[in-house]
Amino acid sequence: MVANYFAVGAIVILLFEKLLGDKRVFYLSFFFIYGLFGQILSLVVIEKGWYLIELGGIRTYTSYALIYLCITSFVFINLTCYIIKFSIYKIIEQDFFLNLRANKFLYMLPVVYLILIYLPVFYYGPALTVTGGNRILYREVIHPFFAYLMQIRALIFPLAGLFLFNKNKHYAYLYIALAIVWNLLIGEKASGIIVTVYFIFLPYVLINYSRISNIRLLSVLIIGVLAIIFSIVANYVFIEGNQAVFILDRISMQGQLWWYYFNEIVSQNTPTHAFMDEFIADETGLIGLMKFSMPTYLYDSYMSAGYILTSGFPAIFVFYFGAWWLFPTMLCSLAYIFPVYFLTKSLYKGEILSFLISNRIFASLITLTAEGSIGTFLDYKLFIYIFILLFLQYMPRVKV
Asked: Which of 19, 32, 134, 373 could cross-link 255 (Cys pair, CB 3.0–4.6 Å)?
């Protein structure tokens, strides 16, 4: 998926550079749809249409899923561009949030966060690895506090990078290099790189597109794809101890085990308490989930290594707190106006912090609406991000 973000983004920029006047608005609106095209490539090349249950209940043929994704992508790219360019930016002119002053001690948040985020690695052992909140690979059941920390790292890492870029670029490059090395050592792969590097440079590319040549940008994207491929192979072969033959199977399974099974349960109208009873007692439910969702030889390889694989944040909170916390997500469709407003204001004024967080909120909303994924629906990180966005308005503006 991450490689598709890079590849599709490069192709789009090259194709449309000469055709559009306000290219920043187009890039902004189109960026959030890249994941849908990445899903198409994933379905065709890797998953062979096995997990179409997550695409709004489309279960039978890959071709139907492709048509569904293409239509929703086309609709939402135009709708998004229209909202940003003609509606929200002109209607809402209040600068209350943007004018709030900052407290500089908040720049210490990345330091505190980096300490907290790696505590479970030393506490639970090197088997713990988290990839972008999509899945957790561990030998013991971990506390949900650590799962929450992992979810906000996509905000803190870019914040740390922006702070270092503002102070000394050499320190920033050193920070990125060390973060990537550390991610590899603890078992991180693609998302460890994406949250550390990609979201640091994305706002700069969007805002300063006129000063960046396409050749140079394409070169950076190619290097990024190669780095991600290398990290995946290195992790599977040298860290997890699997042979290369397992790589495609691992990719096809990651981030999809939990929701594939959960959607099946929901489609059968199984009562919530029955679903909870199966998984909340101990880790045997997770083992059953793995056995149900992956090929036998892959399941056996994990069992022999002592690993348990599951989707991360939503799954763990269901285990610990039940389904009562899911109701606020029903209001998420009404929250479109909020991230669109901050996306537009931050893009035109060059305020990167607001852009980074609004980017994540809006991308989640688009994925929810376009794919109809119940996994996204149950993922109330959207509201956590909204609160963090309000909180970060007190921080100093980092301009480019």
From this structure: 134
- 248-269 pLDDT, tens digit per residue, is 444 444 444 444 455 455 456 6
Name the packing angle between helices 109-124 and 144-167 (round to 10°): 140
Show the tokens assigned to 46: 């890797």
The CA-based diameter of the chain, rounded to the nearest angstrom, is 60
Select from 92, 94, 93, 142 the least CA-distant residue to 121. Answer: 142
Task: Output the pLDDT for position 226.
Answer: 66
**What number of other Cβ atoms are within 10 A of residue 60's Cβ?**
9
**Cβ atoms of 34 and 69 closer than 8 Å:** no
3-state secondary structure of 6: helix
Q: Are 359 and 328 in contact (CB under 8 A)?
A: no
Structure tokens at 55: 């695409």
Please state, in angstroms and rounded to a whole number, the distance separating the CA atoms of residues 1 and 259.
Answer: 17
Q: In what order do the strands lie in the sheet with 129-131?
A: 129-131, 135-138, 308-310
Burial of 200-212, coded b for 16+ CB within 10 Å and e otherwise, reads bbbbbbbbeeeee
CA trace torsion 107, 112, 113, 119 (10° rounding): 170
Quickly tell me which residue has 């590849």 as its tokens. Answer: 7
User: How buried is 253 (Cβ within 10 angstroms: 0-12 exposed, 13-18 middle, 19+ buried)?
Assistant: buried
3-state SS, residue 22 = coil
CB 38 within 8 A of CB 4: yes
Percent of the chain having pLDDT more than 90?
0
Instruction: Kindly report the number of other CB atoms within 10 A of residue 71's CB atom.
Output: 11
Specify the residue for token string 């590319």. 205
